[in-house]
Amino acid sequence: MSRFAELLDDFFFRPDEDVSGLQDFAAGSDGVASAAPEEVPEEYLSFRLEGESYAVPIRAVREISKVPPLTEIPRAEPHLLGVMNLRGELLPAYDIKVRLGLAEKAPLVAGPDAPVPPRDARILVLRTETGPAGVWVDTVSGVVKLKPSMLEPPPPGLRRGDKDCVVGIGRRGPSLYILLDPEQALAP
Amino acid sequence: MSAPSKALAEFVAEATEILEALGKDLLVLDERRGQEADPDRVNGIFRAAHSLKGLAGLFGQERISRLAHGTEDLLDRLRLGKLHLNDAVLDTLIEALDAFQALLAETARGTETDGLTRRADGMAERLGHLGEAPVARDEDPLDRLELEAQVRSVFTEYEEHRLRENVRKGVSMWRVRAAFDLSDFDKGLADLNTRLKPLGEVISTLPSAQPGGAHGIAFDLIFGTQVSVPELESGLKGTPAELARLAVRPATTRSAEALVRATESPAIVLGTLGVGSAPEASTGTSPPASRGVRAATDGGTHQPLFPLASDPSDTEQGETGASGQDSEPDGEPAPSTKGPSLVTYLQGPGGRAPALAATPSGASQAGAGAASALAEPSLRSLTQTVRVDIGKLDGLINMVGELLLIKASLQRLAESARQEGVVPLSKLFGQELARETRGLERKLEALQEGLLEARMVPVGQVFDKLARLVRRITREAGKEIDFVIGGGEVELDKLIVEELSDPLMHLIRNAIDHGVESPDTRLAAGKPRRAVVSLRAEQKGNHVVIQVSDDGAGIDELRVREVALTRGLITRAQAEEMGRRELLNLIFLPGFSTARSVSELSGRGVGLDVVKNNLGNLSGIIDVWSERGKGTAFHLTLPVTLAIIRALVVGVSARTYAVPLNSVLEILSVQPREIRTMERREVLDVRGQTLPFVRLSRLFGLPERPVSRYFVVVVGLAQERLGIAVDELFGQQDIVTKPLGGRLQSVRGISGATDLGNRRPVLVLDVAALLEEGLALERRRA
After folding, report:
1. pTM of the model
2. The complex's ipTM?
């Protein structure tokens, strides 16, 4: 070993070396070694549709809005409830109950004949590949953290028509959440 | 290739602008073929090529840079009189412009093809060898001008050339001396220049020895003019200019001393340097002194005054330095602050182009150029930018400031209202609130207007672009045409101007290819040999009408009818009923014109339906007028802006919709019994004409409500007319239309939505689509 290499020797890492101090330092020097957990929980936003609990990944949700006045679009596809004005931005609002088999036809919520929307109803503004889109939900329940181990594949023989948009079931304690793929749920 | 970066986009924008300017000047030269070229214009083109070269070099655009270098080189020889501007040179320059544009388009796309590279390089090569040298003259006319050798030595090669030309032509030469306040000398100088320009030629602008007051600066303008003395004097009335004639000797040269004596001012030289003073000057300019100054200034970075004074070891420099100190009391720091630029200036005579750019005259001209570019930013189809006058932006910023003030007042009012709580608010409070609201409204209106104005550009940009193409098309078609442009100063929204170029091109091409007869045919028909194709814009209220007309053969409506019949566009029965006007309008039908019909038809050619569509997208209307043997005219009616439009607010089945007012022709009140059916299709009889008619509620599938009368909004786009029945009219309003966006693009009949102030989106009807739909129904049934 050359003299130069000798001098540098101290700086080399050895597999048997104790480097936990360094890890603490990297983790923000809070003293608690952040032993990387096996499972990183993902956050979901859960909401209710016709009494059932659903959830979408929270990163797909841009914001939650109270139901603003909606304007129906004549001759549009049936699951388009209408357009809304969110702080100057024009957004479409969709119904997904029909697609999920929860209702026969989309509720009348836009136009002059629409009743006042229920107090708890909200529009989730979701990020989609074709731009932001609103989805009508009956009520927003909250944020749930689900670890990969809590997720199950969608049960076979689930209701007709929703195979595409239901991507799984989340189970946390006694609660069950039907997990939706926003992109598929809003597909025309 | 990857998408072009932002820097590249900037390059494209700027280069396009330069090319536009270049093209404009070339066009003028082209129009005045055979006449002597305006030296200012040639110089302008040279400068444009030079800037382009610099810009391209900066952005590593080798191909453009190389071609620009060749062009610049040619233009430099041209402006220095080393080359005569003949047709071949001009044609090559125009060709080079096309090559530049092709190169730039490739750059914008981020591609590079070998073919174009070879073409550009070949052209650069050709530019280098082009041209004939002008006849050499035995005597330099410049020697006949009694101007100090020192002054002469500071002229750039170009200035010297212009001076020589002027003297040779026997133009009388003047020195115009003017002093300005340092704070606004640039304005004063620019003003003087604009006054002098019409009278003659400003050859050079030199800083003068005589300081113009405590904070003043004076200039000597070497000026050549052929106007009489009183005329010159009256032209300069109101400016601080003093005139002194520069004598021109008829032939022989005198001694140098005589030269110095003849014109009273060796001071010019020193003044030029910014260190001279009257006492020094009166002793006569000793060559060592001026050499000393030269030496000092050649040093480059020194400011003339102080560094020289601090270096007494050098005798020559010391001398000048002392004189500089002498001048200090009355000279003040003013000249010295001007020093560095003068130094650059003085280095000019050796160098050429760069020095020219650094001269005060060069700078002021460049400034004027920039100002005019602001006033009329050029059309840039490769970029999306708008150039805005900084004054306009400042105005907008001020307005925002005032809005903030109003906001503060409103906030104060809100605060006080909250503190008073349930106590009924005083009348005074109400009044104050109302006043603030009115103020807010006024300011918002002004802001809106200002922003709209910032989007406006003159249509002349497209016109200029078209004029260049016309030249080429005319040549290709073998016609002789005078292309007349009018109303280029009319302003339109940038977006519309961009979109207009293609439809206009189409119409003009048609006019030249098919509208205008060949020269021989014209002569036979008793018309002048040269045809006139004109393009005019005119503002009419909120609309701009653009007319494309020719004095050619006109459209033969019988041939139009035949073609329409053979193509199955109309039935024979329909044809029987059609008037001349309706027949003419058939040319706008899709499928009417194909490449084959161009030759068959005496009049129009390809793709008028495309033109119509493009205009429809701009909420424009097209109308055609034609008389056989006399010519054809297309009238394009366009809204001034698309950003904020006036809309008619209508109600149908308790829903509210907005109809862009620019496509509304009239509104009728119709009783249900007046609605007729023709072949189970509803129509209206309006002043003896049948108007296709749809009920909006039925079209949109809305629950119909019984009404005692309908309002029928008659909309027209391009040639089509349609009546749309609605239940109610709510009046007019300015609206900003927001597009429905990505997810809703497929929605038919709706172009977007707007907010009328109650947060509920109001849909804006897409009149073009509704027309299409309404008429398609009709055609199917017909």
Report:
1. 0.47
2. 0.76
